[in-house]
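Recall that a protein's primary structure is simply its ordered list of amino acids. Everything else, from secondary elements to tertiary packing, is in principle encoded there. The following example makes that idea concrete.
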Amino acid sequence: MSQPRPRPASATASPTRIDAAGRRARLGRRHLLAPGCRVPRAEDVAEAVVGLHATDAATVHLAACARLVEPEPGEVERALYDDHSLVRLLCMRRTLFAVGAAFAPVVASSTAGAIAAKERRDMTRWVTGGLADWDERRLAEVEARTLAALAARGQATAADLAVDVPDLRDTIVQSPGKPYEATVAVSSRILRVLAAEGKIRRGRPRGGWTSSSFRWTPGTPFAELPAPPPAEARAALARRWLAAYGPATVEDLKWWTGWTLTDTRRAVAATDAVEVTLEDGGPGLALPDDIAPVTAPAPWAALLPALDPTAMGWKSRDWYLDPGHVPRLFDRSGNIGPTVWWNGRIIGGWAQRPDGEIAWRLLSDEGGREAAAAVESEAARLAGWVRDIRVTPRFRTPLERELSR
């Protein structure tokens, strides 16, 4: 059976053309990167970009502060750990995101729930296949005891929980005999799955805001959330994504969410998206109220962190990234490093040196002296709020390594 297709912008006219300049104008405004578009609260940032990448703990703070009127890590910590208005979910593409608490049920139903189910299947096979004296019944008992121990403590690290539940200390040797052989405690996989299901959540880290050593706290299982049905939730997520990242392509949305092509097309059809023509002449999608021209903001520069949601927002990136710069800005797994932006295009990269200096390099002469001056100002702004914290991306890229020396 054929899948629903986006309808043209007009029944009698060709699809509206939205060129790269129009897409970059939207990016600068909607992703809060132009100085005049910055916002006061971390929740506003997450809403604008749908969710903040959170695989690297530092990215959440760096990405949010790049878009805040007053950049301050404490503002992000307030939202994450005091007000719980931002929550971390393993969701799109099995990536950890920080999303608004009100939108979390939609993300859970559309994406995270299915990922959690797969994580559980994989973990169950891993534990019961790797440990002779473990079966599904024992696994369930250990999980129940772990949740009870966490409830009693209120918050705890994995090591704390292993004191109460010694079974968590059991280990499995992965890839025995291989160069990458590793001994892994079952606690790491069990806690990951419980978090993926919403039963526990990452609380305040043991160290500063760059630390990935989290204390765990009790959570709310997805099954208890008042969430819309999956198909309805996928449509809601697609609509929110198009509002932030459109115009874009079906392939962009499929890649960003990790959905099947069928689910992506059905979600798009439910948004009433219209077909537009993009800068390369190919078809794109936009919401019906987003086909009029958008005025570009005043010239702007931005220093965005590794895995920033804007840099990782689309599968097709030629309209904001020169393909020739990819080898220096990405690692071998496709993770982007810290980037320098000018008016909606990536023109370079940056890193922090051991003495705290923010070093940057332009890979393009686009914008000339005006761009260089604006980048220098943004580097000073970044150094001003990072202060004595040292940030090393979890995924190192060639240019970042070079600049950080």
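The longest strand covers residues 345-352. The chain is about 40% helix and 15% strand.
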